Amino acid sequence: MPAIAIIGAQWGDEGKGKIVDMLAEKANVVVRFSGGNNAGHTVVNSQGEFRMHLIPSGIFYSAVICLIGSGVVIDPASLLEEIDTLKQKNIDLRNMFISDRAHVIMPYHILLDGLEEKARGKGAIGTTLKGIGPAFVDKTSRSGIRMCDLLNKEVLQKRLPPLVEQKNNLLTKLYDSTPLSFDDIFKNCCEWGEKLAPYVREVDLLIKEALDRREFILLEGAQGTMLDLDIGTYPFVTSAAVGGVSPTMGLPQTKMDGIIGIFKAYTTRVGGGPMPTELKDENGDLIRDRAHEYGTTTGRPRRCGWFDAVVGRYSTLANGFTGAAITRFDILDVFSSIKICTAYKVGERVYSRPPADFSILEECEPIYEELSGWECSTNDIRRFQDLPSAAQTYLKRIEELIECPISIISVGPSREQTIMVRPIP
Predict the structure, then answer these.
(1) Can you tell me the distance from the alpha carbon of 262 to that of 327, in angstroms, rounded to the nearest whole number?
(2) Does residue 30 sit within a domain?
(3) N or C, which end of the chain has less CB nearby within 10 Å?
């Protein structure tokens, strides 16, 4: 059976949660492999509406094993809150496990995230202030605390004091802030370890065992390609790799059978940074209002714009997408005409891919291709051939521009409101 990755193809918030929730019905294992609780997936099903931040969206199928991989940074307080919320809704968590190698977001990470963002002033990145960046800094500098450490009080007693001292030096001397208490942090870590211990496992071995059984593994990405630390719109990115599936997770690239890119039928972005197709007019407001485009994690209004095929084509090339899912398609039902950005221009120069220099990208103006809208509801359509001809034309043009076949079209928030163009897997 295949291993398939679901990866955001734009700036995040593409609707990955619904696609994972839908495909998880056939999966044996669902793995969240990147990011932290700065990401959010909204899932709507017969059990209700859920806003997920760390736990994989496959959790709503009791037979599915749901894993949080080593590439995720975990805020234990946030994870425990999510666990409690799901338990209150009688969601079965017996098959949910966390990698013992995953790094922990500590209280000083959250505090430093806010102070660092404030210090940037007008150059603020637009971070979610969840401590993600500082946690990845410590991971890279080999001074992080991992889930396995939370289970060992002796290790914590040895490792925490110099780390807290170092962070307090930053807090007091650089940011003129109040120092943190070692005793409080140690107590929190011990409590987190006790509560999360039943869920902590060697996740890489669980994945290998599933591969040996030839089971279907679904990999759930977080955020979007254009927020990737290496290939996104740096420095206005997240601190994690978005597109890469780490071999250390127990799933080498040679075991991958497909990579599905998730695209909204339009474009959104939260936070700072360039967004060439952003609409600061009534069309942008209409998209935002119809789609309720506000961040799952932050509640901030998302910046909205027409579909950016420059980003789409670049994302396909960077990730090697074997198929695309187009979400929120029904949001465009009311427009009489719709635009697609096919290239950028700065002066006389035309760009067919996003320039690496964000100062140039900030100056880019979109080159648009205008298509007719269909001005009727697509919510109840379940076959591609039953879509209005103008809707079919729009989708086929996107398919051509991003150079990737469309496999799924979402025409509403529920599982049933989906058009399967090509089977997955």
Answers:
(1) 7
(2) yes
(3) C
What pLDDT is stored for residue 294 in this prediction?
85
CA distance 272 to 266: 18
Burial status of residue 359 (CB atoms within 10 A of its CB: 0-12, 13-18, 19 or more): exposed
For residue range 76-96, list pLDDT tens digits in order.
999 999 999 999 999 999 999
Cβ burial, residue 188 (10 Å; 0-12/13-18/19+): middle
Eight-class DSSP state of 110: H
Domain extent, residue 412, equals 263-420
d(C-alpha 171, C-alpha 341), whole Å: 45
Top-confidence residue, 15 or 297: 15
Q: Answer whether residue 425 is part of any domain.
A: no
Mean pLDDT of 135-145: 94
Active site residue 109: no
- Residue 356 DSSP one-character state: S
Q: Are residues 137 and 82 in the same domain?
A: no
State residue 191 phi and psi, 5-degree precision.
Answer: -65, -45
The predicted pLDDT at position 1 comes to: 61
Query: 343 and 310 in contact (C-beta within 8 Å)?
Result: yes
Q: pTM for the full model? A: 0.88
Rounded-to-integer distance, Cα 302 and Cα 308, Å: 16
> Which residue in 13, 21, 113, 228 is the catalytic one?
13
The 10s digit of each residue's pLDDT in 175-193 is: 999 999 999 999 999 999 9
Catalytic residue among 21, 41, 75, 149: 41
Q: Exposed, middle or buried: residue 277 (CB in 10 Å: 0-12, 13-18, 19+)?
A: buried
Q: How far is CA 252 from the centre of its chain?
A: 21
Three-state DSSP at 267 gives strand
The verdict on whether 13 is a catalytic residue reads yes
3-state secondary structure of 414: coil
Q: In degrees rounded to 5, what are phi and psi of residue 408?
A: -135, 140
pLDDT digits over 302-325, tens only? Answer: 999 999 999 999 999 999 999 999
Same domain flag for 163 and 191 = yes
**CA dist., res. 342 & res. 365, Å (int):** 11
Q: For the chain, how many structural domains are there in total? A: 3
